[in-house]
Design brief:
Strand order of the largest sheet: 2-1-3-5-4
Structural class: alpha/beta
Distance between the termini: 56 Å
Radius of gyration: 25 Å
Number of domains: 2
Length: about 280
């Protein structure tokens, strides 16, 4: 697939439009940066150049007089992706409200970026600065598009984890109640807090979450009283606070005790069994 956009200095909307298309349509799409109408006509998709807004033909420009809508090329592309079901509806809404609507507003002059906030349009503007020639702008654009693509892939992965958490956390909460446990067991690290509190977490009888770490360790996390709170329903023992390795093992009485945060909201163990044994020794099962 070939995506055409204009050459020379670039802006947040054409960078984002290209990154969206590579993320949700064709990761290997070639980008041609030109204002040559003959080359533009041969492209499969065209963003921010060409004077046409025709989603059915893959044309996404907003500069022509006959387009009076609110979008920049990025908003046009995101709307088309959503209409074509190429992006999950919830994720499309999050991308629109969290990034692209603002980007459209900046590009169309409805909002001026604040100089003290490192927002995406200002970042893209800075990425232009080292370039002086068309070839240098092409290279800078490639770097900006690659950066934006990595960001989008991260947001997609984050959304996938949220969907996974919705499928796993509520059953784990129910299982904890069934076995009369104060600990929610998870088989993988997931963004569990929003799902936990969406399902009555503030009044749920559990006080801790046990999940694996990315390094093979196991973490016991004290659940906050409500979403966004930095406190804990039941802090981990004060005598554990700030200890590591042998010093923590001496206090817990459990080999494989690795670390306990001084603020008593997380403790790390080398194995699941060590974590559960340490909790049993303080009367939590």
């Amino acid at each position: 697939m070939v995506i055409a956009t204009h050459d020379g200095p670039f802006h947040a909307d054409d960078v984002m439009a290209v990154a969206l298309l590579r993320t949700f349509v064709d990761p290997g799409a070639e980008v041609v940066r030109t204002r040559d109408l003959a080359r533009i006509a041969k492209a499969d998709l065209v963003v921010d150049v060409g004077g046409e807004h025709d989603p059915e033909r893959g044309r996404f420009d907003h500069h022509q007089k006959n387009y009076q809508g609110p979008y920049s090329s990025a908003g046009m592309v995101l709307a088309w992706l959503a209409e074509e079901s190429k992006v999950h509806p919830e994720l499309a809404e999050q991308l629109a409200s969290g990034i692209v609507d603002y980007l459209d507003d900046v590009d169309n002059g409805r909002v001026a970026p604040r100089p003290d906030v490192p927002c995406f349009p200002r970042i893209v503007d800075a990425l232009n600065r080292p370039a002086r020639t068309h070839a240098e702008f092409d290279g800078a654009f490639r770097e900006a598009a690659a950066f934006t693509g990595a960001w989008l892939r991260g947001l997609v992965a984050e959304h996938d984890l949220v969907l996974e958490a919705r499928a796993a956390v509520k059953p784990a909460m129910d299982a904890a109640v069934a076995r009369r446990s104060r600990i929610v067991y998870l088989d993988a690290y997931l963004p569990w807090k929003p799902v936990y509190f969406d399902n009555g977490g503030e009044t749920h009888p559990t006080e801790y979450v046990l999940h694996p770490g990315t390094d093979g360790s196991w973490h016991v996390v004290a659940i906050p009283p409500k979403l966004g709170d930095f406190g804990q329903k039941a802090p981990l023992p004060a005598e554990w606070a700030g200890l590591t390795d042998a010093k923590l093992e001496a206090v817990t009485g459990v080999r494989g005790s690795v670390f306990s945060h001084k603020n008593r909201f997380i403790a790390v163990f080398s194995t699941r069994e060590a974590a559960l044994e340490a909790m049993r020794r303080i009367g939590v099962e």
